[in-house]
Amino acid sequence: MHQNNQNILQVAAKYVIISQIAAARLTNISNHYGGAPMLKPGLYEQVINKELSDKIDDSAQLVDRRNIDKAEAPQVLAGYLSEVIEKGLSRLSGDDIEGQLGLANKIVSTVTELTGDDEFDGLSVDQRAEQLLAINEAEKLPQAQLLIANLLIEYIGYGAFQRAVLQTAPEYVFCVIQINTDEVQRVSESPYLRAFDRLDEVHHQMEKETLTAAMNDIGYSLILQESYPLPNGKALVRLDFNRKR
After folding, report:
1. What tens digit of pLDDT does each residue of 63-89 get?
2. What are the boundaries of each domain within the chain?
3. Which CATH architecture has domain 138-189+201-243?
């Protein structure tokens, strides 16, 4: 039985090597006779731009294409343009933001002109190039004896959380924050990684020492600290506070 398994593995290995050699030879033949590089097989659902159109025209592969549906065109073209615009803005990035701001507002002006709708003119980016992160409504929070904030402070920041605590005036505050030692990628690899892209705009890196100091500044002492390790250099940290007397 062991000998049979070895024979099977040897045959499989030879097949892989032969397949790789054949693929390399096909590529060399294509290049030798002036053929275009092979397009990678797969499902694309991609807008055909000029560069891709030239590759398709020169390719001998079977290509499945269709016209962009009129009803789907706004979403399809907007998705494609977002990639083009992001690349363009990245090329203009430097010590200041003026070039990127100018490109963004030219795009808005073009949309306004072509649609004839002045409503779009109000969507030009203000010259101060600022982002609105939050509108403070802490004064609407009711007072409570216990405040629980699990995985919340990361998205409102220390200052906003301090205001919320002062408004609710609790006796106890229980918090859970996520600590990330991986500063490059705070979300672990998964098929749903891209779903978190926009959260980076409001996410704040948490430090237990900084949160403890912020709570101490508004009259709360740390009474409990526990850490729960997670994969990929991450951890959940529980911090409980009691109002100073």
Report:
1. 777 888 889 888 889 888 888 888 888
2. 2-58, 73-123, 138-189+201-243
3. 3-Layer(aba) Sandwich (3.40)
Task: Tell me the two tokens of residue 12.
Answer: 């499989």
Q: Which amino acid is at 182?
A: D
What tens digit of pLDDT does each residue of 96-109 get?
Answer: 788 898 999 999 99
**Amino acid of residue 104:** A
The Cα 171–Cα 243 span in angstroms is: 5
Shortest CA distance to 107 belongs to which of 86, 76, 131, 129?
Answer: 86
Per DSSP, the residues of the chain read -HHHHHHHHHHHHHHHHHHHHHHHHHHHHHHHTTPPPPPPPS-------HHHHHHHHH--S-----PPPTTTHHHHHHHHHHHHHHHHHHHH-SSSSHHHHHHHHHHHHHHHHHHT-GGGGGGSPPTT---------GGGSPP-SEEEEES-HHHHHHHHHHHHHHHH--SEEEEEEEEES-SS-SS---TTGGGGGGGGGT-----HHHHHHHHHHTTEEEEEEEEEEETTTEEEEEEEEEE--
